[in-house]
Amino acid sequence: MTAPSITGTREKNLLLALGFCGLDVLLMTGAAWYSDSLAILSDLLKESTDFLAVLASFLTILAMRRGPGHRFGYGIGKLENLVSLFIGLVMVGCSLFLLTQVINHFHHPVPTRGTLPGIVIFAAYALIGFGIWARNRWILRHQHSPIIESQARLWFSKACFDAFMATALILELLFRGQPWSFYLDPLASLLGVAFMLHAAYAISSSSVDDLMDAALGETTQLQILNQLVRHIDDYERLHKVRSRRSGSHIFIEVFLELDPNLRMVEAQTRINRLRHAIAETIPGAEVSILLHAP
Fold first, then answer.
1. Any idea what DSSP says for residue 37?
2. CATH, range 3-211
3. Residue-wise over 18-27: b if at least 16 C-beta within 10 A, else e?
């Protein structure tokens, strides 16, 4: 699959997620108005921040389509990482709010009413969330993207959260009147907090690594070395290889020493051959072959 088709798929996937998030906010607003459930009210606030996070991701993708300006020729890809960090912070804020509500509910347990619409919405969006998560994972198998990775984690945590909430509300509805059932609502919220904090940590840690311009992974480095060995007759000596990732972009610099007696045309042919070989092995990589003086 070519890079442009992946980019288009990435935008469509974010637009689809944005639509589902917006619809979820509207539905949960009605459910929260109809019910006095802490789980439904807290989910409404969580979905609102999720909607803002997905919207920010979509606008970032649109900004990157316009291409880098003269001031950020190499750093536009890091905009994805910054947005991913923002998503992580949003999830931490949601988790802290839910945690305070859970503690208060444990101190003052009360039964809930009017939860049936919320149960239906939670169950439906659990299925939708797992579906969008699976689609994001498919995209990541073809092209690395911090935004899509953060969206995959976000939707997985959302789907698990909705599934736990639906289960808790169903059990509370079935065993209404039992004192122990009053604690199902905050327990489900507590599990949701754990999922969100874990996802926020994973998003932030991976984004910080990319912002620090870390070298590519060992597997990718071996792919570069494999091509250098295959074309060992095209150069005299290999001096060093530098690689880094900026968002979804990969930059590879290979410093080579060529035969000084080669004609310019032959030298350029060898450089192009090696550059194309590495670029085909690592899709989406921008490969530079730099000559090193003996």
1. -
2. 1.20.1510.10
3. bebbeebbeb
